[in-house]
Amino acid sequence: MARVRNWQLGRDMEYPYEAERPKRQFTMIMDTNKCIACQSCTIACKSTWTWGKGQEFMLWNNIETKPFGFYPTGWDVNILAKLGEQSWDGDTYTGQTIFEAAPEGERVLGWTAAEEDWSHPNIGEDEPTGNAIETTYVPDRPHSLMWMYYLQRICNHCTYPACVAACPREAIYKRPEDGIVLVDQTRCRGYQECLTACPYKKTMFNLETRVSEKCIGCYPKIEQGLQTQCTTACIGRLRLTNFLSPPEEADPRKPADFLVHIRKIALPLYPQLGLEPNVYYIPPTHVPTDFLTQMFGPGVEEAVKMYENAKDDPELLGLLMLFGATERIFETWDVSGGVARAYDEQGEEIVAVPLREPTFVRPFEFATEVAGEPVTGYRHNT
Amino acid sequence: MSASKVTRQDALLYGGAAVGGLVVGGAAVVGIAAAVENRKGAETAEGEPIVARYHDGELPAEDPGSGTWSKATRVRVPIAAQRIVQPYLEREGVTELGVRALASATEVALLLDWEDDAIDDLDGIRRYHDAVAVQLPTRAGAPPPPLTMGAPGNPVHILQWRATWQRDIDSGGKTGVDQIYPEVVHDVMPDDVLPPEAAQLYWVGREAGNPLSKIDRSTPVEEVAAEGFGTVTHLPNQLARGRGVHEDGRWKVVIALPSARAGVGEALAPGTSWPIAFAVWLGSDENRGGRKHISTWQTLALEERPA
Fold it and tell me: Which terminus of chain B, N or C, has less C-beta within 10 A?
């Protein structure tokens, strides 16, 4: 076991390998508030990468409803139950990670999803939870006390991947150039240890080739400076493919660094598991804080407050408006004169979007003449 | 036998208690001739050398049921859960492997049998296969490599039979989604709409040349070299033969290899004896990879060719 720094936990932790950080780290930011679970991302991914025979059940990208949706069934509640109650002291995690809690004879505390667990990607879809008895309508919010939200899931391309830790053959590796985690298709022997170890359950077993496969971060696109298929297919424009620096090298001009390290509005998924996952979520604004804290760690309340204030925060709003505005990965952005602009590595402008689209209001009633006769009516949408 | 645990100490010492401390390697070994002589005619033995009786002619390399096997003494080899290297096998499902051996001028064949009620011969999600493996040093001479699949600079030669590969052969490659889920209904698949060379790209493991992803195979036995756990390397020449059948709640599997071992290691010549170890996997007990049953080093004594 090596000692490694996990900044999401605010402390060092045990990991089976000395893990050097990549030159730059692939990351994705998800704004959960904008998602309508249309699954355009899921289909974009599926039709690009996993429509082969043997991959029928595979969704490298999926959208699930929280709290009752899972793919595979129970993926998060199972590992949380196995790990047991843990705690944070402020921003420092005082509990155990899945590496530290590994039982004798195992490298990682894990569990193995059964084949039927992979068969219900829509389980729990749109099922809300919460206080249905007290009231169904809360005047100061557009929501009732019932709640649910959509969680966008791809491989987290973790800094300390459990799949890498568990593979007895070192067949899974993290690319030094961009931190994307890949299964070496020539080296895997199909032991499925990665399926047991990954707490996010994002490695999958190909039934025809008998080796494991996983989200490849659309690396052929990344290598061309393009955002992933799930990002560019998103009609809600809630995703951003970008690169993230470690906190001590955070650059406020870079989009992901700004959202994750400077503003801390985007938070990791189950950081307590100890993998330092590299997909970050802007938490939903209408969900009980306890639930969000369990899922995204400390800092949820501040993130929600900041998001609610985004309309008065041009720098942040501008960046959020640039999500989904270009297929290209952008390096920096700025906002001036009510317009947000994204720039490439050379500082060339890639795209510009207004912070506020112009609005036109038509009168509710109208009066006109038809064939010389006066006609009055009401506006309606067509 | 009682369930035995293979400990780290056993792994490092050549020959656990079951072997009786017989240290051999190369031809100049006192006692082998006597052992060969003593075992003739015995039906079963435990802790004795596995004597490969010389057979003049073709070995029953693909026939576990051949009468020729009755020439060989069946040695009972204790096997136990692997708990030396992570990940461990938590629970033992079988404690004994039966081993018979025959040798011809050109080939050595082993008949391995073990109790297993369930046939696991399809690989799926959390669905693992039955398998058995034989481990030999590449070089003669004591001490043998570490039991844990050798060590850097101290390689072992491993031959593994998998039930899935046997089914690949027996069924002509019908071992995929359609067999795992017989009621499956497919949408349009790449091979329905693309030319074969393009459709093939969607079977990435196969396209990348991973031997594990092949279904059109000529032998159910894979020959690999290893220098420690996790280092298994597919050998360029796959010359081992074999066949496994499931009968009366037992697997009976033949693994046969050319005794010359060209390009792999020193020849398994008549009159020599070799350390040999075994591993067994029970698919329905979720055995796979290092989660397996292993023996300690045993002794394989190759009978002299009769004058």
Answer: C
Domains of chain B: 8-163+225-302 (2.60.40.1190)
Q: What are phi and psi of B37, to 5 degrees?
A: -65, -45
Nearest Cα to B211, choosing from A194, A172, A186? Answer: A186
CA atoms of A131 and A32, how far apart (whole Å):
22
Contact B235/A at CB under 8 A: no
Is B197 in a helix, a strand, or coil? helix
The complex scores an ipTM of: 0.89
Answer whether A118 sits within 8 Å of B125, measured CB to CB. Answer: yes
Cβ(A12)–Cβ(A99) below 8 Å:
no
What is each CA distance from A344 to A58, A142, A242, B17, in whole angstroms? 34, 39, 12, 69
Closest Cα of chain A to B89: distance in Å?
8
User: Which of A105, A185, A195 is the closest to B205 by Cβ?
Assistant: A185
Nearest beta carbon to residue B127 from set A51, A106, A115? A115
The predicted structure's pLDDT at residue B146: 96
CB contact under 8 Å between B88 and A207, yes or no, is no
Q: For residue range B228-287, what is the model confidence (pLDDT) as tens digits?
A: 999 999 999 999 999 999 999 999 999 999 999 999 999 999 999 999 999 999 999 999
For A128-148, what is each residue's pLDDT tens digit?
Answer: 888 766 655 555 555 567 889
Pick the residue of A106, A192, A212 with the most B CBs within 10 A to test the interface with B by mutation: A192
Nearest-Å Rg of the Cα atoms of chain A is 23
Helix (H, G, I), strand (E, B), or coil: what is residue B180? Answer: helix
CATH T-level assignment (fold) for domain A2-302: Alpha-Beta Plaits (3.30.70)
Report whether A318 contacts A338 (CB < 8 A): no
- Residue B237 contacts A, CB cutoff 8 Å: no
